[in-house]
Amino acid sequence: MKLFKKNMQLVLVFFLVFALNDNVCYASAVEEKLLSNILKDYNRKARPVQKETDVVDILMDIALPQLMKVDEKEEVITTNVWVRQYWNDPRFSWNKTEYEEISQIIINQRKLGYRTLFY
Ligand SMILES: *[C@@H]1O[C@H](CO)[C@@H](O)[C@H](O)[C@H]1NC(C)=O
Questions:
Q1: What letter does residue 96 receive in the DSSP assignment?
Q2: What is the spatial distance between Cα 80 and Cα 66, in angstroms, rounded to a whole number?
Q3: Which ligand 1 atom minimizes the distance to the CA of 95?
Q4: How many Cα neighbours within 13 Å face the side chain of 32?
Q5: Which pLDDT tens digit goes with each residue over 58-94?
Q6: Phi/psi at 11 (nearest 5 deg)?
Q7: Where's the Neurotransmitter-gated ion-channel ligand-binding domain (predicted)?
Q8: Measuring from each residue's beta carbon to the nearest atom of ligand 1, which residues come in under 6 Å?
Q9: pLDDT tens readout for residues 5-46
Q10: Whose CA is nearest to atom 1 of ligand 1?
Q11: Are 40 and 33 spatial neighbours (Cβ–Cβ below 8 Å)?
Q12: What's the whole-model pTM score?
């Protein structure tokens, strides 16, 4: 994607992690420091942009992790469906040389206070 190629020195993270539980252990002090620095001024109500005129591209997909029941007679299929949404949040960027080359972290969606945008 075009957005990923911008600014090779900085790393953008933009994850929505749906099923991760809260008891995540961060592997190192530097990762803790990184997390605390990027969340320090984070405001979940602000749009994830650097300039006011920037547009937020949201990619959506649907995953079908589980087929629960097929009722041939009634012609009904019961499934579990995940609606996943992806976007870049430039506020979650850092210079990886300052954080022992960490280029990616996973943040629990609940920690960020995101809700699902649409269905
Ligand atoms: C990243 O940090 C290193 C070390 O502080 C610095 O030399 C480099 O210029 C920084 N890169 C960017 C893109 O800010």
A1: G
A2: 5
A3: 1
A4: 6
A5: 999 999 999 999 999 999 999 999 888 888 889 889 9
A6: -115, 130
A7: 31-111
A8: 9, 95, 97-98
A9: 444 344 444 444 443 444 455 568 999 999 999 888 888 888
A10: 95
A11: no
A12: 0.60
